[in-house]
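Researcher: Here's a chain I'd like modeled. Treat it as a single chain, no partners, no ligands.
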Amino acid sequence: MTDPSERALVPFVSVENMMRLVHETGLDEMLRRLAGAIEADFLRWESFDKTPRVASHSPLGVIELMPTADGTLYGFKYVNGHPKNTHTGLQTVTAFGLLASVETGYPVLLTEMTLLTALRTAAMSALAGKHLAPRGATTMAMIGNGAQSEFQCRAFGAICGIDTVRLWDKDRAATEKCARNLAGSGLTVLPCASAEEAIEGAQILTTCTADKQYATILSDNMVGPGVHINAIGGDCPGKTELAPGILDRASVFVEYPPQTRVEGEIQQMAEDHPVTELWQVLAGKAAGRKEAAQITLFDSVGFAIEDFSALKVVRDAIAGSDHYQLLDLLADPDDPRDLYGMLARAV
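Model: Modeled as a single isolated chain. Structure tokens:
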């Protein structure tokens, strides 16, 4: 039972403590835990409240809230996406999240989610790849070598067993950064001079660019049969990475269609363009990869249930540890009807 003197104190995981937690757990193990938690929650998909994220768009970026609940716990994430931030030394994406008890409404966890979002996004990509990528895939092209790229490479190594990554970014310094960070990871890292070179011999193609624009990172003639495309950069209205012809040839898998049709690659397509919800594949209710020559596409924009899963992983991981601090976040008067009296006595 919670000590009454601490019932209004909320565990808070700072960036420093999140890094300590990941290092203590091990990066590969943390990625596997996140993927396992997401898969378990996707298997009970119908028990969750679901809504597209609440977005406030501006010419410079977007600020979003991503809520969900399962009847016992409520979770939300605050996240922004501002591609031009890097020009002034700021992160493109920052985030924090909260987990609360449905019974009382009291928060049970507040945490940074900039790092955690990178981890859960990579875990989600690799989870989809485990079910959709060609059997025995060993090589991934990582096109776009920004803040997400190393996490993606490590997740596909830890969860899907790839051993080689081929890197390309229009900014050569980004590729050099990614290659440097992946040194010693156990992956063979091959910097490439073009996107076309990067996809040579790769069975998995991951695209993750930041610019908020309709772009063609992969043109139709670049994508041959039998590959799996992990498209994670087209994540808001007006931002895509793939030529429409690829979408016409591929079997498209999504998280939550009402959100993906607005923000994903399929925003380019007709509203009735066929898609399969990934939770149905995980639950055995729909087929994933059916044949070797099939092109599979995970059109990922991120969904609140994934953040909910990640929040639970962190809640469980910090139990009994010193990887958090308690915040005096909630008023807790001796008499719950006497909030004013608590204020007055504080003098």
